[in-house]
Amino acid sequence: MDKLTTIDGRAYPFGMKNVDTDIVIPAHWLKTISRNGLGRGAFEVLRKEPGNVFDDPAYAGSPILIAGDNFGCGSSREHAAWALGDLGIKVVIAPSFSDIFSGNAFKNGILTVVLPQAAVDRLMEVAQGVNGTPDPIHVDLEAQTVTTRFQDRFTFEIDPFRKHCLLGGLDEIGLTLDQGDVIDRYEAKQAQDRPWVVPAAVA
Amino acid sequence: MVKPRTLYEKIWDAHVVERRPDGTCLIYIDRHLVHEVTSPQAFEGLRLAGRKVRRPDLTLAVPDHNLPTTPRRDAQGNRIPIADPESAQQLAALERNAPEFGVRLIGDADVEQGIVHVVGPEQGFTLPGTTLVCGDSHTSSHGALGALAFGIGTSEVEHVLATQTLLLKQSRTMAVIVDGALAPGVTAKDVALAICGHIGTAGGTGYVMEYRGSVFRDMSIEGRLTVANMSIEAGARSGLFAPDDKTFAYIKGRPMAPKGADWDAAVAWWKTLVTDEGAVFDKTVVIDAADIVPTVTWGTSPEDVVAVTGVVPDPQSFADPSKQAAAQKSLDYMGLVAGQKMADVAIEHVFIGSCTNSRIEDLRAAASLLKGRHIASGIKHAMVVPGSGLVKRQAEAEGLDRIFLDAGFEWREPGCSACLGMNPDKVPAGERCASTSNRNFMGRQGPGSRTHLVSPAMAAAAAITGRLTDVRELLHNKEGVVA
């Protein structure tokens, strides 16, 4: 996983609430056996609408997405995070996220930043451009801040473990496997306490 | 004195492998269901890193999302090729990965094959007090049996395959209490939709729900599976029912369930899995059973619910300006206008199936209305997709397939089917479906499809009249009295 420290750039002023992962990536894109190339299917239905932000050249390649409440609800498909990553998005800012999506995003090196609606509204304005040209947004994971050139400064909370993994680009599976002995001990105890957990063999 | 704990806290505590200073816990996973859509990249990750599946014996693979629901073998028993090359490739990947990593696969033509969330309980793979995960958000279903069950992404699938654990933060707890008795014609699906409408699709975010109250105690296991299934539609990753005698009776004797002394030991522990007197929930939601009516959705979110006797809401009636805009967008997509009676909405498609409503009780409920009746002339396509091969076999033994076929329904092979627009079963753009599935998102049943979520009985009623219909009218007409 790539390290994520600071992200600087334009942001898609999307803002839509209750965006489900079927909207982020429709089911027919889920037939792939690869993690790559899903950006082409990202927001497929919304991109059929003229004037959508995702096809606006002013935002092409923006590393930040600003969304509304409950972003990523619905299906657990990690393809949603892969699709955003493939679009080049490194940070999603919203008032709230679904639990499954924010976990999936984190595991793919995408930072989800929760900010109050008023802050999100302000960042939407900045992303759209105070003078008609989109203005960049600066996200600093170490400092846990989102700032703009207009002196806006918003701080956000993040789980310390997630922060540590994102900053270091760490492989979570590798970290857990290093703890094989604690898992061994748990399994030995469970085999005594709840031996029935191992399913009956099927003939 | 031991601090009183909720059911969730008891299961959580029993699965902590290691607690870290920041509160994150390494949680042991007892059960892992794997399907073809969210696993190929996980197995590939293991292969690239030279890793094994730690506990293949706790893992079960079943294809469901992509499989066409048309026959899978010809008269000679030869496999009928899958037309879509990408679907075929994904199914082939699961058939290759499961044996390579030593995981049991229930294959496409096995009678036990079906939707993972139907197969798990049916095989006795799902047990009370276990932690159960699957790369599918409707894994919450298994909470009906008292399993702490939740959907995970593919990276987590890979993590569980490799380590049999997940790193998690403990969730908050929410009691969802429904007391009283459900009126005739009101089903578990209506309860689930009422909950979505009451708390909204983000209302349960960050929480594990526990369903409490007389309605849930009185509910069958199959009804509980429907309710737990839709926990995620209210934002909760997981929804629990305390296991009881009904649960034990349901599980006993199933192929993968504990036997003999193991069974006795298991039941003894399962009986302790209730929320203690005095345990505190972070949030409590109370709904009166008498307020729950046969329900349909009008919009493109499962929280967009209304009584079937009601009307399409006016977007201006919502307090939140952004909800007003979203509601208007939904109505435009759905081709509905504010004030229109729901019972006047004509439909062209009926889908009875999905992990929400494809079990034998669901099929019985629909068949009991359809017996001796026929779908309306305006219905272009009506289809029943049993949740598993065993459900299908049971239904056929009861003659339900004949009732559906005589009524003008198609009788299909098990799978996820028209719930998610991924296999050939889709609703055409601009056309309207009364569906027993769980999501009415834009494009969910196919690009441009319009979905109205309903119970199996309401789906059957809609098929008979050709429009969204209050099932109670048909109960009246047929029996002379409300059933």
TrEMBL record, chain A:
Pathway: Amino-acid biosynthesis; L-leucine biosynthesis; L-leucine from 3-methyl-2-oxobutanoate: step 2/4. It catalyses: (2R,3S)-3-isopropylmalate = (2S)-2-isopropylmalate. InterPro entries: 3-IsopropMal_deHydase_ssu, Aconitase/3IPM_dehydase_swvl, AconitaseA/IPMdHydase_ssu_swvl, IPMI_Swivel, LeuD. Residues 1-117 form the Aconitase A/isopropylmalate dehydratase small subunit swivel domain. One of its GO terms (molecular function) is 3-isopropylmalate dehydratase activity. It holds the Pfam family Aconitase_C. Keywords: Amino-acid biosynthesis, Branched-chain amino acid biosynthesis, Leucine biosynthesis, Lyase. It is an enzyme of class 4 (lyase). Its EC number is 4.2.1.33. Coiled coil: none annotated. HAMAP family: LeuD_type1. Heterodimer of LeuC and LeuD. Catalyzes the isomerization between 2-isopropylmalate and 3-isopropylmalate, via the formation of 2-isopropylmaleate. Belongs to the LeuD family. LeuD type 1 subfamily. This is 3-isopropylmalate dehydratase small subunit. It comes from Sphingobium cyanobacteriorum.
From TrEMBL, chain B:
Residues 9-466 form the Aconitase/3-isopropylmalate dehydratase large subunit alpha/beta/alpha domain. Catalyzes the isomerization between 2-isopropylmalate and 3-isopropylmalate, via the formation of 2-isopropylmaleate. GO terms for molecular function: 3-isopropylmalate dehydratase activity. Heterodimer of LeuC and LeuD. The gene is leuC. This is 3-isopropylmalate dehydratase large subunit. The keyword 4Fe-4S applies. The keyword Ribosomal protein does not apply. InterPro entries: 3-IsopropMal_deHydase_lsu (IPR004430), Acnase/IPM_dHydase_lsu_aba_1/3 (IPR015931), Acoase/IPM_deHydtase_lsu_aba (IPR001030), Aconitase_4Fe-4S_BS (IPR018136), Aconitase_4Fe-4S_dom (IPR036008), IPM_dehydratase_rel_enz (IPR050067), IPMI_cat (IPR033941). Belongs to the aconitase/IPM isomerase family. LeuC type 1 subfamily. PANTHER family: 3-ISOPROPYLMALATE DEHYDRATASE, HOMOACONITASE, MITOCHONDRIAL-RELATED. It comes from the Bacteria. It comes from Sphingobium cyanobacteriorum. Binds 1 [4Fe-4S] cluster per subunit. Pathway: Amino-acid biosynthesis; L-leucine biosynthesis; L-leucine from 3-methyl-2-oxobutanoate: step 2/4. Its EC number is 4.2.1.33. Keywords: 4Fe-4S, Amino-acid biosynthesis, Branched-chain amino acid biosynthesis, Iron, Iron-sulfur, Leucine biosynthesis, Lyase, Metal-binding. Pfam families: Aconitase. Its cofactor is [4Fe-4S] cluster. It catalyses: (2R,3S)-3-isopropylmalate = (2S)-2-isopropylmalate. [4Fe-4S] cluster binds at C355, C416, C419.
